[in-house]
Design goal:
It comes from Candidatus Nesterenkonia stercoripullorum. This protein has 279 residues and is of the alpha/beta class. 48% of the residues lie in helices and 15% in strands. The longest helix has 33 residues.
Length: 279
């Protein structure tokens, strides 16, 4: 595996304040720092956790930690500091009930918090579509049953799973090393897949995304990356973190916006000149 990058945190565009963002995560989430790194100072992340459930990482746990009423209560706890957006930072909890369940979570959060709301699985799906991918390879730390539920979520959205690999873990996922994650992604990949998706916000990916993309020759997107990207994207901010394919989406959007502005200025100038010409 190539050496992980040691890139410093990214900084927000000059003159733009950080966006206060409420983050609801499961009680066993241990990678708050990675979300901060992906946000790069553009989001002021304010965390709260769902109530403790003495369960291992199973389908039952995924359903418990994503009950809309419990997530809404967590949002209410955060609403005292008036976040400008909310995000539910758990992949399994946001895909376990399918597309409809993900939308119900978003509705519960936005209603409770009176602000835009997003989820990790919704972000992964949106990012997959933004990259123009219709087929995926999938790397997860879960067991076969939860991995199958993840695949079903994407299949429901018309995204085809070509291959997958998992670690079969039922807890302490944050302890997986970069080297283990790197090899997991390599095992999961397929020539038939347009992109590789790395599921689970407890799986560290920040320092290996660029190397994986170079190694595999295709976009590799992760849960924590997508969590931050979806908030930035919907609130009109560029993503400048690791993963050149995703960062390229923001660069393309900026170039398109700049070109549109130039075209409008040219049109305004031409119109002004035509008005100034004698009849």
């Amino acid at each position: 595996m190539p050496e992980p990058s040691t890139s410093a945190a990214f900084t927000p565009p000059p003159g733009l304040p950080s966006i206060r963002t409420g983050v609801v995560v499961p009680y066993d989430m241990a990678l708050d720092s990675e979300l901060h790194r992906f946000a790069g100072g553009q989001l002021d992340l304010l965390f709260t956790r769902t109530p403790l459930e003495p369960l291992t990482v199973t389908e039952e746990q995924a359903r418990e930690i994503s009950r809309p009423e419990a997530v809404a209560d967590s949002v209410l706890a955060l609403s005292a500091v008036a976040p400008e957006a909310y995000v539910y930072g758990c992949t399994s909890g946001s895909f376990i009930r399918g597309i409809t369940g993900e939308r119900e979570l978003v509705h519960a959060m936005s209603t409770a918090g009176c602000a835009p709301a997003f989820t990790t699985s919704g972000g992964l799906l949106g990012l997959t579509r933004a990259l123009g991918a219709s087929s995926i390879a999938m790397a997860t730390p879960y067991d076969d049953a939860i991995t199958a539920q993840c695949a079903a979520f994407f299949a429901e959205a018309g995204i085809h799973l070509m291959s997958n690999a998992n670690l079969g873990l039922d807890g302490r996922i944050w302890e997986v090393s970069y080297a283990e994650t790197y090899e997991l992604v390599r095992r999961a990949d397929s020539d038939r897949a347009d992109i590789v998706i790395i599921s689970c916000t407890n799986l560290p990916t920040f320092d290996i995304l660029d190397a994986l993309e170079e190694d595999l020759g295709k976009p590799v997107i992760s849960a924590n990356q997508a969590t931050i990207w979806t908030v930035l994207h919907h609130l009109g901010r560029p993503y400048d973190g690791p993963g050149q394919a995703v960062a390229g989406l923001s660069r393309s959007s900026r170039h398109a916006a700049e070109r549109t502005a130039e075209d409008r200025r040219a049109e305004d100038h031409a119109a002004a000149e035509s008005l100034s010409e004698p009849a």
